């Protein structure tokens, strides 16, 4: 009996370390991994975000172009070299078109069948339909929702200015959630007027990590086949989003109604019938890509709505609030931005319009610099989708399914690429050439770059302009010039304790 138990324990141990020679055999440096957990124990137990893990590796191996990593027992590769990054995201995109967040090839939970998380042909089919959904014309038609939200934001900020300290991250999250409600679903979410709004609670829950969420996420990475039917997302989230979308669809009789909001766009896409594209991975007998088709169903509408709701408010609120936080600690730049806002808005009768925001170049520079210092999405991930791939720069060959991590946050704060990286220098972005390709990547790059980048930027800038037109932003007694990153972050980054500041009427 003892020998059987000993043999089982030994077998269990060796199964948990079976892949750990992967990078050693290829001459790639990596930290020593733990059985089953690899190098990712801190992230599995929510003591470090993935961006924080990648940044740590980036800094520990300053002379390497790539660094090995194990998420559970799966080998991954952290990329430190801009030329290799460009190759992955742009030049050789056909080898890395998958993001790789889903741990199983075929079993994908319903809400993750969206443009951000989907891979392969599902991603390509959705992306084809969404190509024009965030065009200049569509954004202009949505901008009335932003103008209305900016005016409401000023009214709420007026009340908050009586307080000695307030979390500007929470204020901007209420602003962006209100926009998502109006522009996404045609609903008055009243998160600006009510900080306990059900929709604000839903938004918080999407990015909150409970013990159940932590256990589910770790289990899916460590035992992907065994836990393929375990969902990353909590059941109550799926129920809430499904209920919300179904109510809106039912109210509109499942047809577009001319509101030009996100649901309307998707209902219009659905009415166009089947989507068809050339497959990324299926070939016919001649070796040509097969044509694949898909119906744009209510389930897919719900999944895209989940993405629009969650990612839309979180990334925009993080970046807009961090910009205001930086301006609170850099009053000279705050004054420059306020003077520009005052000058531009005089031309537009004080209204924050699409044209007005696009004229605010000083504000834009500050926005970009805040995204450099603390990108809301701190890392990118891609998965090798071909049988093997060789990086010509280093002669390294990886196998299909190996994921690569691009540590945006670390690159943005590397003195090799940015002079005095810890300081707020908006003049880094004086001209287009300052937007360094494969180095400054707040929206990603290549075919899988953020499709709603322009809308998110304009929404954030309009909110910042609304605040600074009426108020000064100053550090409060609770403020920290260098706020602590939240280790609970999954894809989007945030801060422990928020970003408390003091608003003072101009």
Automatic annotation (TrEMBL):
Listed InterPro entries: Cyt_P450, Cyt_P450_CS, Cyt_P450_E_grp-I, Cyt_P450_sf, Insect_CytP450_Detox
Broad class of the protein's primary localization: endoplasmic reticulum
Gene Ontology CC annotation, any one: endoplasmic reticulum membrane
Catalytic activity field: an organic molecule + reduced [NADPH--hemoprotein reductase] + O2 = an alcohol + oxidized [NADPH--hemoprotein reductase] + H2O + H(+)
Cofactor: heme
Source domain of life: Eukaryota
Membrane topology classification: Peripheral membrane protein
Subcellular location: Endoplasmic reticulum membrane; Microsome membrane
A single MF term (Gene Ontology): oxidoreductase activity, acting on paired donors, with incorporation or reduction of molecular oxygen, reduced flavin or flavoprotein as one donor, and incorporation of one atom of oxygen
SUPFAM superfamilies registered for this protein in UniProt: Cytochrome P450
Enzyme Commission number(s) of this protein: 1.14.14.1
Protein keywords: Endoplasmic reticulum, Heme, Iron, Membrane, Metal-binding, Microsome, Monooxygenase, Oxidoreductase
Binding site for heme: 450
CDD domains in the record: CYP6-like (cd11056)
Family to which the UniProt record says this protein belongs: Belongs to the cytochrome P450 family.
Alphabetized PANTHER family for the sequence: CYP9F3-RELATED, CYTOCHROME P450
The protein's name: unspecific monooxygenase
Organism: Danaus chrysippus
């Amino acid at each position: 009996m003892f020998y059987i138990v000993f043999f089982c324990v030994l077998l269990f141990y060796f199964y948990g370390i079976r892949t750990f020679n992967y990078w050693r055999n290829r001459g790639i440096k990596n930290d020593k991994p733990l059985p089953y957990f690899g190098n990712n124990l801190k992230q599995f137990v929510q003591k470090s975000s993935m961006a924080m893990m990648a940044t740590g590796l980036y800094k520990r191996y300053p002379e390497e172009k790539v660094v090995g990593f194990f998420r559970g027992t799966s080998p991954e590769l952290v990329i430190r070299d801009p030329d290799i990054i460009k190759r992955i995201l742009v030049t050789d995109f056909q080898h890395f078109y998958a993001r790789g967040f889903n741990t199983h090839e075929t079993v994908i939970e319903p809400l993750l069948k969206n443009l951000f998380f989907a891979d392969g042909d599902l991603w390509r089919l959705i992306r084809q339909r969404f190509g024009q959904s965030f065009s200049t014309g569509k954004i202009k038609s949505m901008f009335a929702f932003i103008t209305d939200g900016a005016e409401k934001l000023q009214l709420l900020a007026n009340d908050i200015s009586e307080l000695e300290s307030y979390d500007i991250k929470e204020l901007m999250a209420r602003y962006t959630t209100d926009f998502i409600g109006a522009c996404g679903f045609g609903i008055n979410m009243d998160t600006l007027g009510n900080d306990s709004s059900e929709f604000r609670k839903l938004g918080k829950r999407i990015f909150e990590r409970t013990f159940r969420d932590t256990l589910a996420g770790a289990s899916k990475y460590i035992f992907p086949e065994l836990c393929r039917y375990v969902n990353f997302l909590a059941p109550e989230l799926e129920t809430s989003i499904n209920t919300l979308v179904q109510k809106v669809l039912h109210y509109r009789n499942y047809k577009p109604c001319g509101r030009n909001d996100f649901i309307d766009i998707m209902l219009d896409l659905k009415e166009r019938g089947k989507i068809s594209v050339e497959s990324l991975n299926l070939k016919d007998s001649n070796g040509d890509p097969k044509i694949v088709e898909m119906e744009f169903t209510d389930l897919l509408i719900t999944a895209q709505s989940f993405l629009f709701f969650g990612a839309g408010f979180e990334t925009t609120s993080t970046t807009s609030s961090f910009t205001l936080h930086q301006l609170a600690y850099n009053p000279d730049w705050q004054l420059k931005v306020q003077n520009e806002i005052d000058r531009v808005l005089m031309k537009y009768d004080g209204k924050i319009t699409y044209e007005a925001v696009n004229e605010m170049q000083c504000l834009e520079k500050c926005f970009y610099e805040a995204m450099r210092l603390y990108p809301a999405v701190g890392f990118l991930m891609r998965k090798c989708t071909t049988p093997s791939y060789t990086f010509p720069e280093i002669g390294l060959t990886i196998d299909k399914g190996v994921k690569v991590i691009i540590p945006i946050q670390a690159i943005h704060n590397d003195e090799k690429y940015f002079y005095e990286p810890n300081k707020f220098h908006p003049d880094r972005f004086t001209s287009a050439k300052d937007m360094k390709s494969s180095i400054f990547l707040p929206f990603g790059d290549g075919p899988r770059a953020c499709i709603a980048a322009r809308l998110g930027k304009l929404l954030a800038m309009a909110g910042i302009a609304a605040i600074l037109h009426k108020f000064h932003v100053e550090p409060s007694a609770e403020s920290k010039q260098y706020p602590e990153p939240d280790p609970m972050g999954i894809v989007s980054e945030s801060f422990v304790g928020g970003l408390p500041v003091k608003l003072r009427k101009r």
